[in-house]
Description:
- The chain is an alpha+beta fold.
- Helix content is 32%, strand content 27%.
- It is built from four helices and five strands, in the order βββββαααα.
- It has helices spanning 87-103, 107-125, 131-145, 165-168; strands at 5-17, 21-28, 32-38, 57-64, 69-78.
- Strands 1-2-3-5-4 form a five-stranded mixed β-barrel.
- Helix 1 (87-103) packs antiparallel against helix 2, helix 1 (87-103) runs parallel beside helix 3 and helix 2 packs antiparallel against helix 3.
Amino acid sequence: MAAKITTKGLVLKEVKLRESDRILTLLTPQHGVVSVSARGSLRPTSKLFSACGQFTYSEWTLHPGKSMYSVDEATPVEVFFGLRQSIEALTLAAYITELLQIFSPTGEEAEKLLRLALNSLHILSENKMDPALVKAVFEFRALSESGFMPNLLACDDCGRYEGGPRERYAIW
Protein backbone atom coordinates (compact mmCIF):
# COMPACT_ATOMS: atom_id res chain seq x y z
CA MET A 1 0.00 0.00 0.00
CA ALA A 2 1.30 3.45 -0.95
CA ALA A 3 2.28 5.82 1.82
CA LYS A 4 0.13 8.81 2.67
CA ILE A 5 1.31 12.31 1.79
CA THR A 6 0.90 15.38 3.99
CA THR A 7 1.10 18.66 2.11
CA LYS A 8 -0.40 22.11 1.94
CA GLY A 9 -2.31 23.11 -1.16
CA LEU A 10 -4.66 25.64 -2.71
CA VAL A 11 -8.02 24.49 -4.12
CA LEU A 12 -8.03 25.70 -7.73
CA LYS A 13 -11.24 23.98 -8.76
CA GLU A 14 -14.03 21.91 -7.26
CA VAL A 15 -16.50 19.75 -9.17
CA LYS A 16 -19.56 18.22 -7.53
CA LEU A 17 -19.74 14.46 -7.93
CA ARG A 18 -22.90 12.60 -6.95
CA GLU A 19 -24.74 13.97 -3.97
CA SER A 20 -22.04 14.67 -1.41
CA ASP A 21 -18.67 14.13 -3.09
CA ARG A 22 -16.28 16.51 -4.83
CA ILE A 23 -13.33 16.19 -7.18
CA LEU A 24 -10.78 18.87 -6.34
CA THR A 25 -7.88 20.27 -8.30
CA LEU A 26 -5.11 21.37 -5.94
CA LEU A 27 -1.86 23.25 -6.42
CA THR A 28 0.73 21.87 -4.00
CA PRO A 29 4.33 23.06 -3.59
CA GLN A 30 5.91 19.58 -3.94
CA HIS A 31 3.59 17.79 -6.40
CA GLY A 32 2.27 20.64 -8.54
CA VAL A 33 -1.31 20.37 -9.79
CA VAL A 34 -3.05 17.19 -8.58
CA SER A 35 -6.60 15.80 -8.66
CA VAL A 36 -8.16 14.71 -5.39
CA SER A 37 -11.32 12.80 -4.56
CA ALA A 38 -13.03 14.24 -1.47
CA ARG A 39 -15.78 11.81 -0.48
CA GLY A 40 -18.59 13.23 1.62
CA SER A 41 -17.07 16.71 1.60
CA LEU A 42 -20.34 18.41 0.59
CA ARG A 43 -22.09 17.31 3.79
CA PRO A 44 -22.12 20.27 6.23
CA THR A 45 -21.20 17.86 9.06
CA SER A 46 -18.14 16.56 7.20
CA LYS A 47 -14.72 17.31 8.69
CA LEU A 48 -13.60 18.10 5.11
CA PHE A 49 -16.38 20.62 4.37
CA SER A 50 -14.57 23.90 5.14
CA ALA A 51 -11.17 22.83 3.76
CA CYS A 52 -12.44 21.83 0.30
CA GLY A 53 -13.95 25.08 -0.96
CA GLN A 54 -12.50 26.86 -3.97
CA PHE A 55 -9.76 29.39 -3.10
CA THR A 56 -9.11 27.68 0.24
CA TYR A 57 -5.51 27.00 1.26
CA SER A 58 -5.45 23.90 3.46
CA GLU A 59 -3.19 21.23 4.91
CA TRP A 60 -4.02 17.86 3.32
CA THR A 61 -3.46 14.21 4.12
CA LEU A 62 -3.62 12.43 0.77
CA HIS A 63 -3.51 8.79 -0.26
CA PRO A 64 -2.38 7.96 -3.81
CA GLY A 65 -4.88 6.04 -5.94
CA LYS A 66 -4.93 4.67 -9.47
CA SER A 67 -5.88 7.91 -11.23
CA MET A 68 -6.04 10.49 -8.42
CA TYR A 69 -5.42 11.04 -4.75
CA SER A 70 -8.07 10.66 -2.07
CA VAL A 71 -8.24 12.87 1.00
CA ASP A 72 -8.81 11.62 4.53
CA GLU A 73 -8.03 14.75 6.51
CA ALA A 74 -7.86 18.43 5.66
CA THR A 75 -7.48 21.50 7.81
CA PRO A 76 -8.05 24.99 6.39
CA VAL A 77 -5.11 27.38 6.78
CA GLU A 78 -6.59 30.38 4.93
CA VAL A 79 -10.07 30.69 3.45
CA PHE A 80 -9.85 34.20 1.87
CA PHE A 81 -13.36 35.24 2.94
CA GLY A 82 -12.80 38.78 1.66
CA LEU A 83 -12.88 37.56 -1.95
CA ARG A 84 -16.63 37.11 -1.64
CA GLN A 85 -17.12 40.81 -0.77
CA SER A 86 -16.37 42.04 -4.31
CA ILE A 87 -17.46 40.55 -7.62
CA GLU A 88 -14.31 41.99 -9.20
CA ALA A 89 -12.06 40.27 -6.64
CA LEU A 90 -13.97 37.00 -6.96
CA THR A 91 -13.77 36.92 -10.76
CA LEU A 92 -10.08 37.82 -10.68
CA ALA A 93 -9.45 35.01 -8.18
CA ALA A 94 -11.23 32.60 -10.54
CA TYR A 95 -9.08 33.87 -13.42
CA ILE A 96 -5.89 33.37 -11.38
CA THR A 97 -6.82 29.79 -10.45
CA GLU A 98 -7.75 29.01 -14.06
CA LEU A 99 -4.35 30.26 -15.26
CA LEU A 100 -2.63 28.08 -12.67
CA GLN A 101 -4.48 25.04 -14.01
CA ILE A 102 -3.38 25.90 -17.54
CA PHE A 103 0.27 26.36 -16.50
CA SER A 104 0.16 23.07 -14.51
CA PRO A 105 3.43 23.84 -12.72
CA THR A 106 5.68 21.16 -11.24
CA GLY A 107 8.70 21.16 -8.95
CA GLU A 108 10.25 24.49 -8.00
CA GLU A 109 7.95 26.32 -10.42
CA ALA A 110 4.89 25.02 -8.50
CA GLU A 111 6.21 26.36 -5.21
CA LYS A 112 6.89 29.81 -6.68
CA LEU A 113 3.52 30.03 -8.44
CA LEU A 114 1.71 28.84 -5.31
CA ARG A 115 3.39 31.59 -3.27
CA LEU A 116 2.49 34.16 -5.96
CA ALA A 117 -1.13 32.97 -6.04
CA LEU A 118 -1.47 33.06 -2.25
CA ASN A 119 -0.03 36.59 -2.09
CA SER A 120 -2.35 37.73 -4.89
CA LEU A 121 -5.43 36.19 -3.25
CA HIS A 122 -4.48 37.75 0.10
CA ILE A 123 -4.14 41.22 -1.45
CA LEU A 124 -7.49 40.82 -3.23
CA SER A 125 -9.17 39.44 -0.11
CA GLU A 126 -7.95 42.32 2.05
CA ASN A 127 -8.69 44.90 -0.68
CA LYS A 128 -5.15 46.28 -0.30
CA MET A 129 -4.56 47.16 -3.95
CA ASP A 130 -6.39 47.92 -7.19
CA PRO A 131 -7.45 44.56 -8.71
CA ALA A 132 -6.24 45.67 -12.16
CA LEU A 133 -2.73 46.10 -10.75
CA VAL A 134 -2.90 42.73 -8.98
CA LYS A 135 -3.92 41.11 -12.27
CA ALA A 136 -1.07 42.72 -14.21
CA VAL A 137 1.55 41.79 -11.62
CA PHE A 138 0.24 38.22 -11.33
CA GLU A 139 0.24 37.70 -15.11
CA PHE A 140 3.73 39.11 -15.55
CA ARG A 141 5.25 37.19 -12.63
CA ALA A 142 3.44 33.94 -13.55
CA LEU A 143 4.72 34.15 -17.13
CA SER A 144 8.20 34.92 -15.85
CA GLU A 145 8.22 32.00 -13.38
CA SER A 146 6.92 29.70 -16.12
CA GLY A 147 9.79 30.54 -18.47
CA PHE A 148 8.05 33.07 -20.72
CA MET A 149 9.97 36.14 -19.56
CA PRO A 150 9.87 38.83 -22.26
CA ASN A 151 13.05 40.67 -23.17
CA LEU A 152 12.39 44.21 -21.93
CA LEU A 153 15.86 45.59 -22.56
CA ALA A 154 16.40 45.09 -26.28
CA CYS A 155 14.96 43.81 -29.50
CA ASP A 156 15.08 40.03 -29.34
CA ASP A 157 15.88 39.74 -33.06
CA CYS A 158 18.64 42.31 -33.55
CA GLY A 159 19.71 43.04 -29.97
CA ARG A 160 19.27 46.84 -30.36
CA TYR A 161 17.75 48.79 -27.53
CA GLU A 162 18.26 52.35 -28.76
CA GLY A 163 16.30 53.12 -31.87
CA GLY A 164 14.72 56.18 -33.39
CA PRO A 165 11.24 57.33 -32.40
CA ARG A 166 9.59 55.29 -35.16
CA GLU A 167 11.43 52.11 -34.24
CA ARG A 168 10.88 52.59 -30.53
CA TYR A 169 7.09 52.83 -30.91
CA ALA A 170 6.61 50.53 -33.88
CA ILE A 171 4.25 48.28 -31.92
CA TRP A 172 1.65 51.07 -31.69
